[in-house]
# Entry
Amino acid sequence: MTCAECGGKLRSKKENYRYLACGLPNVTLTGVEVRRCATCGDHEVVLPHIEKLHEALANAIVRHEARLSSSEVRFLRKYLGYSGVDFANLIGVSPETVSRWENKKESMGSSTERLLRLLVVHKTPIQEYPIEMLTRISQTAQTKPIGLRLTGDGWIEQGLVAA
Ligand SMILES: [Zn+2]
# Structure
């Protein structure tokens, strides 16, 4: 394997990888293959079953009892496959409102937030999601670390040891 940037040799290693590319600051993938170039420092990460990874991540987010952060709102909206405009039309707000939610200018109301969580749950009906979970959501946003581990053919959430 050679580096796409400089043609140097890539070394492959299993690492705990901070998945910043998903748009969330708090997601760690445990034991994934990362290929690093010793020459230029560039790296690539191997993420099999990426749709299942995003599904596991969305499931983890809707289970958190804290209010959704702006980046979680954006992640879930994209996970559902909607553009900002389509999502705005779907739930009956202006595209500017969606943009304000996702850019931390305004917080999503709690009813709308429940609707977003239910849309996510509905997309992946295999999980168990008692409606009572929606009543336990607190009034404050808190970004909790999320850890995901690759299994045979998918991803599961697992507790993280505090760093
Ligand atoms: Zn390189």
Notes: The beta strands are 10-18, 27-37, 43-45, 146-150, 155-158. The CA atoms of residues 15 and 31 lie 5 Å apart. The longest strand covers residues 27-37. Residues 65-143 form a domain with the 434 Repressor (Amino-terminal Domain) fold (CATH 1.10.260.40).
